[in-house]
Amino acid sequence: MVSETAEAATPARRPGRVRTLAAIPCFNEEVAIGSVVLKARQHADEVLVIDDGCTDGTAKVAREAGATVISHGACRGKGQGIKSALRYAVDHNYDCLVLMDGDGQHDPSEIPLLVEPILTDSADLVIGFRTFDQMPFYRRFGRAVLDVASSNGSSITDSQCGYRALNRRTMESMLGTLKKDDFSTESEMLRIAQEKHLRIGETPINCKYGDFDTSTKNPVSHGIEVLGSLFWLAVERKPLLHIGLPGFTAMLAGIFLLLQFLEGFSETGLVGVEQGMLASIFLIPGTMAVVLGLALALVARTRE
Fold first, then answer.
1. What is the per-residue pLDDT across 131-172, written as a single tens digit (0 to 9) for each?
2. CA 240 from chain center: how many Å?
């Protein structure tokens, strides 16, 4: 079992204010994490760095900069880092959790912008959004596709931005509900917020990509991973809609083609091989999809 340890720094308490935790999931961010922590401490009661199996000096630099450090001991994925941040924030009675990246792309001085809608109780989840002109060209198309895939009918501007703030209600709603451990966690959080009728707000932020992209994930594999995870999330949540219904449609088409095949054989005595094969192509997979959809729906209901 992977061990998980925490080393706490003394948080800068602000009496009479909503207690805010800034959490930074990290994987090998030694170069930037120190300055990010120092700046974030100016706008939060405590800064938490989640060391997700870093092989460089990220944890040491973060600790020296005054952050609390949780070490996963192995690379478990960004989703696990977010779950650790949620658990820590709830266990330590924080009113607001700000999630941000540790590579320097997010400006810690903008933490108050994300926290403001939480303080005024105008939103439960606040997401920073980047304008397209801030992003490298090759990332714009991918973000547009993922925004559509993640929107679920809403008008979220930047579904993939990791710079976001959550109030206590949202933190508790996410705990025990988030399933994914990869980069699709941001999209999953939006799905959960929509299902639980949480108020989602947005605020513009500045994102610095600089002369090089510091992301540790290839953007193409990132996009494919998120799309795949979103597909399976949709299947898991509504298997009858996404598997059972298409399967039932295919099964009906197969039955129709099978009846035509039998009618033709009855009238002519000739076997229409092509028509029989076409009926099988629709009927067999369609029947399997219906059975699978029903089984997954039963599993989902049992879990609930």
1. 756 665 555 545 555 455 545 555 677 777 889 999 999 999
2. 23
Cβ-based neighbours of 160, under 8 Å, separated by 6 or more: 143, 146, 147, 150, 186, 187, 226
Q: How confident is the model at residue 22 (pLDDT cuts 50, 70, 90)?
A: very high
Secondary structure of 162-231 as H, E, C letters: CCEEEEHHHHHHHCCCCCCCCCCHHHHHHHHHHHCCCCEEEEECCECCCCCCCCCCCHHHHHHHHHHHHH
Distance CA 230, CA 1 (A): 28
User: What is the 8-class DSSP label of residue 83?
Assistant: H
Q: Which tokens in the block code for residue 96?
A: 């607001």
Q: What is the pLDDT of residue 3?
A: 44
- CA dist 37 and 279 (Å) reads 63
Express each pLDDT in 45-64 by its tens digit: 999 999 999 999 999 999 99
DSSP class of residue 106 equals: B
Tokens representing 140 are: 């714009």
- Provide CB contacts within 8 A for 51, sequence distance 6+: 26, 58, 59, 62, 69, 70, 71, 72
> What per-residue confidence (pLDDT) applies to 15?
44
CA 238 – CA 91 distance, rounded (Å): 32
Q: Number of H helices and number of E strands within the chain?
A: 11, 8
Q: How far apart are CA 74 and CA 83, in angstroms?
A: 15
**Closest by Cα among 100, 200, 191, 99 to 150:** 191
pTM for this entry: 0.67
